[in-house]
Fold this sequence. Notes:
The structure is a homotetramer.
Chain A: H1 6-19, H2 28-46, H3 51-55, H4 61-84, H5 89-103, H6 106-109
Helix pairs in contact in A: 1-4, 2-4
Amino acid sequence: MNPIDIQQINERLEAFAQDREWNQFHSIKNLAMALGAEAGELLEILQWLTEDQSNAIKDSPKEKTKLEEEVADIFIYLCRIAYKANINLEQAVNKKIELNAKKYPTEIAKGSAKKYSELPVVGE
Amino acid sequence: MNPIDIQQINERLEAFAQDREWNQFHSIKNLAMALGAEAGELLEILQWLTEDQSNAIKDSPKEKTKLEEEVADIFIYLCRIAYKANINLEQAVNKKIELNAKKYPTEIAKGSAKKYSELPVVGE
Amino acid sequence: MNPIDIQQINERLEAFAQDREWNQFHSIKNLAMALGAEAGELLEILQWLTEDQSNAIKDSPKEKTKLEEEVADIFIYLCRIAYKANINLEQAVNKKIELNAKKYPTEIAKGSAKKYSELPVVGE
Amino acid sequence: MNPIDIQQINERLEAFAQDREWNQFHSIKNLAMALGAEAGELLEILQWLTEDQSNAIKDSPKEKTKLEEEVADIFIYLCRIAYKANINLEQAVNKKIELNAKKYPTEIAKGSAKKYSELPVVGE
């Protein structure tokens, strides 16, 4: 899989918005609502499926295409929010992965779906 | 901004899940719910702000860090969903950008926040 | 179960907002974001549970209390939105139930999780 | 406005589900996803509107009808979740309103959109 050139995507999305005079609508608040709406469409695809059926979507071209479109929509709004807020997506993601590794130490979190705040305290 | 190496992120996230025996929880259905929960946290940060205040978050280090963490969480779950569903994120995003260009032709969509289905129909 | 006196709830919520000078934040847009954030918290409670585990929450006092609080939060924001938009909740709900009965005729929809738009067309 | 007879609504919704053999899909987990999807549709109606425009929806019959339908859909799923989890909606809502009154004392919370956890601590 090729790396994703976020800068190029940002430039395309910004040109897209400028051509349509849509930046007037693209406040970070509004973009977050749009992302929330797309997350809702993702839920709608999966809401009545069992977990196994949800995993089998990859073998159903028609359903997979729908899933792909929602995932892409969320990605696009995420890029727009990061672009408007001067967030470096790559750095933010790597920082969060490292933070999660500290929050959920392997030995403590193994096999447990508990939230960080409910896990037994580590160290001290 | 560096390109994002999705394959490397996927490998880190998969190792993270395997080390903690979390793949049992990571059905596509469950990951979509987790993404929806994170989208909710993004909304919570912005819900009482005006649009201008939401755009000014980039100048407030404390608020920007919170925004960055939510954006990263959503990105991480999006990568997990794409990984589990064999979706090529880069191709899916580029395909969707092209689709949007056809759905919202510049001349018709200019300055309008109307949905595709409510825009005047375009020629033949 | 007692009927819910929506007018009384609306009066309490409006007094609550006025006492705290919160009406400045309570645009319908903002209230919808707040409802979306609460829906996210509801998802978070349930995201790693199996369907059976989610149904068993009613037997776990601690988890049930969490669920109750989220359900109440969503109800409260729903009342606020209806109040601000002059929506008669009781009429809106009854109208929607009747609409759904027409959209999903028993014989056609039986045992199928298909959306209205994907169900076989009925009669003329 | 008439009080809402939740018991009657529950009975109608339960009969509706039984007639269509839909209870197999109505786990609390799935119903929460469906509610999240409807919350997304609510966001979609409002995402590109200014706060003032969102408040003016009550004067636009077409837009108001759309809002009414989403509000009703969310109400319906909320009733279903409460019904399946043995939650007494009226008690849960009243308890939450009282809890909020303690969490956000008038003098401290006045004019502030800060979350409970960020408000100055009150007395002992």
